[in-house]
Amino acid sequence: MVKTMDRETLREKMESGEDLLLLEVLGEASYRQGHLPGAVRYESMEQVRRLAPEKDTLIVAYCSNFN
Which of 6, 9, 31, 52 is exposed most, by the fewest CB atoms within 10 A? Predict the structure, then answer.
C-alpha cells in the first residue's frame, strides 16, 4: 500500500529511531549533491529486497532536488 507522508511525520520517525528504509529516487548526481541522513539511492527492486527483507519494513521513497 502506498501512502503519502509529510516532512514532519518523517522527521519524527527518523528522530525516534524507527526502523525504516529511506530511498532517494533521483539520479546519482542528485544523490551525491545531498540526501537525507541514512538514505540510499534507489538502484533496483533487488536492492530493496536485500535492504528490507522483512515485508513489514517501512520504506520511504522520496525525491528532492537540491539545485
Answer: 6
Task: Provide the CA 44 distance to its chain's centre, in angstroms.
Answer: 13
Q: What is the total residue count of the chain? A: 67
49-61 b/e (C-beta count within 10 Å ≥ 16 → b): eeebeeeeeeebe
28 by DSSP, 3-state: which? helix
Distant-in-sequence contacts of 18-21, Cβ < 8 A, 24+ apart: 18/58, 19/57, 19/58, 20/57, 20/58, 20/59, 20/60, 21/48, 21/51, 21/52, 21/57, 21/58, 21/59, 21/60
Global pTM value: 0.82
